[in-house]
Amino acid sequence: PDVVVNCAAISVPRACEIDPASAHAINVPSSLVKWLQSFKQNSTLLIHLSTDQVYEGEKSFYKEEDIAIPLNVYGKTKVAAEKFISENCPNFAILRSSIIYGPQTLSPVPKSLPIQWIDGALSKRETLEFFHDEFRCPIYVKDLVTVILALTSQ
C-alpha cells in the first residue's frame, strides 16, 4: 500500500487505566508496523493518529518539539506508539490531535462523540460538569481528513 492511516486506539483514558495491557496492545501498532516491514519495497507512508494527552498539561498550548510527559496510561501508550513508529518506520507522520468532533458516524460507535454527548445531555436537561482549567484544541473531523489527504499527496 502507498498509505496506511492508523486510527485504531483505545482512546478512553478510564478504559486504559482499567486495562493497561490491552491499551498498550492496541495503541502501540507493532503488528501493523511489522506487516508494513514485510513488503519488499518498504515505502508506505504510515499516518498515525496520536493525542495531545502525551503532554502533562502544565502549559496552555504545546508545540511538537515540547517534551512528552504523559500523566495517564492512554498518553503513555501513545508516547510508546510514537517512539515505536519513529524507530521502525522509514516513512511516517504522527498527528497529535485533541478532541475530534463532527457528525455522528454511520457505523455505531460504543460512545457518543462530544457534540452528541452534549446535545443528548442538554435535551434531557441534565447538568454537565466540565474541567475549569483544561485547555484543548478540538478539531473538526473534516479538517483532520483534509490534513491527512494533504499528507498523502506529498
UniProtKB/TrEMBL annotation:
Transmembrane segments: none annotated. GO terms for molecular function: transferase activity. Keywords: Transferase. Residues 1-153 form the RmlD-like substrate binding domain. SUPFAM superfamilies: NAD(P)-binding Rossmann-fold domains. This is Methionine adenosyltransferase 2 subunit beta-like.
